[in-house]
């Protein structure tokens, strides 16, 4: 189960790093009418959180493999 969780975390983290606009559309984009875009700060923080989630996923994956 830890291996699956690690792979899931890594996938979500990579998605946040490569396409932070997608995460914004899922969380906030549907709430606004018309064209709206996330701020640069939001995109940067989403990329940083993607890196942290990816690192956590790698750690969880390693623990799952070793147990």
UniProtKB/TrEMBL annotation:
Pfam families registered for this protein in UniProt: DUF6199
Record-annotated DUF6199 domain positions: 5-63
Keyword Transmembrane: yes
Domain of life: Bacteria
Keywords: Membrane, Transmembrane, Transmembrane helix
Residues that span the membrane, as ranges: 47-66
Annotated protein name in UniProt: DUF6199 domain-containing protein
């Amino acid at each position: 189960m830890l291996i699956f969780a690690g792979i899931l975390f890594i996938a979500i983290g990579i998605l946040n790093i490569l396409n932070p606009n997608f995460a914004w559309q899922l969380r906030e984009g549907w709430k606004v009418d018309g064209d709206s875009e996330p701020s640069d700060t939001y995109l940067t923080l989403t990329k940083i959180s993607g890196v942290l989630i990816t690192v956590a996923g790698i750690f969880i994956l390693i623990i799952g493999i070793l147990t």
